[in-house]
Specification:
eight-stranded parallel beta sheet, about 40% helix, alpha/beta, 10 helices, single chain, about 280 residues, two-stranded antiparallel sheet, TIM Barrel
């Protein structure tokens, strides 16, 4: 019997800047609930007043019938071990997530200024990510590593991904494939996910097209076959989250409208595929 795939929203549709603090999470939750989604993966800058009040956030989400899928907590990890500040930040949100059964920590490495000394930087990042994941696992929280695709990202190409999979402590640290970033890195996004399905703990999707020039697209209008993804994840007995997001100019100008449009795509195509229909 297949378990259900849950579909929610990532907070980046409302604000791509992981460091810009805001306090409008209630409005975001209203839009998510109104458009048929089941939960939220929020970057920590989006928490606002709830950052120190996880119990109140849980009450607010429960009232709307929503669940916290994950918190996205970005790190630089400049050294071979976590800095004291990074460790304290991670521990703060490991404790936060424990208020939400089943929620995980989504941990993206920040983009650097360049890709010099690439392998050394990749090893340092993975050492710290693995250490965080082992510590969170000891406290019952899953951590999942989220690569991205800007030009100076440390994990953006197929070669970078091979290094990542070689270095990841798979007993403790999962992988959050972001299909838009994978496509932007020159790979077939669905093939890449399914080839490394054993690592997958959490999934982000946004659309991207390589032609006529590389660009983010409205969901369903780019190169990524999300229906195929949902079908193949279901067939593989994946029963985690798919988090939708968008990075187009239109979504930046009106994120609520973008989420309504994505909701229509999800209800008509993505959810039926995830349910085997």
């Amino acid at each position: 019997m297949h378990m259900t795939i849950s579909i929610g929203c990532h907070g980046s549709t409302w604000d791509l800047d992981y460091d810009r603090q805001s306090d409008r999470l209630d409005d975001v939750l209203d839009v998510i609930a109104a458009n048929g989604f089941e939960g939220l993966d929020a970057q920590i800058a989006l928490l606002g007043r709830y950052r120190t009040q996880p119990e109140r956030l849980k009450e607010s989400m429960d009232r709307r019938g929503l669940r916290l899928a994950a918190l996205t907590v970005p790190f630089t990890w400049p050294a071979d071990v976590e800095t004291p500040e990074e460790r304290a930040l991670a521990d703060e949100f490991i404790a936060f997530v424990q208020h939400f059964p089943g929620a995980l920590l989504n941990i993206p490495p920040r983009t650097g200024p360049d890709r010099d000394d690439l392998l050394a930087r990749q090893k340092a990042i993975m050492n710290s990510a693995n250490a965080l994941a082992r510590r969170s696992a000891d406290q019952g929280v899953v951590s999942s590593f989220h690569p991205s695709s800007p030009a100076t990202s440390y994990f953006r190409t197929s070669d970078d991904y091979r290094v990542m999979f070689d270095l990841i402590d798979a007993d403790h640290l999962g992988w959050t494939p972001d299909l838009g970033h994978i496509a932007r890195g020159g790979m077939d996004a669905v093939d890449e996910v399914m080839a490394h399905r054993a690592f997958v703990k959490h999934v982000h999707i946004k659309d991207h097209s390589s032609h006529p020039e590389p660009a983010w697209r409205k969901m369903g209008t780019g190169d990524v076959d999300f229906v195929r993804l949902a079908r193949e994840l279901r067939a593989s007995d994946y029963h985690g989250w798919i988090m939708v997001e968008e990075e187009t100019e239109q979504s930046a100008a009106n994120p609520d409208e973008a989420v309504r449009d994505i909701g229509e795509y999800v209800s008509s195509l993505l959810r039926p595929a995830a349910e085997g229909k």
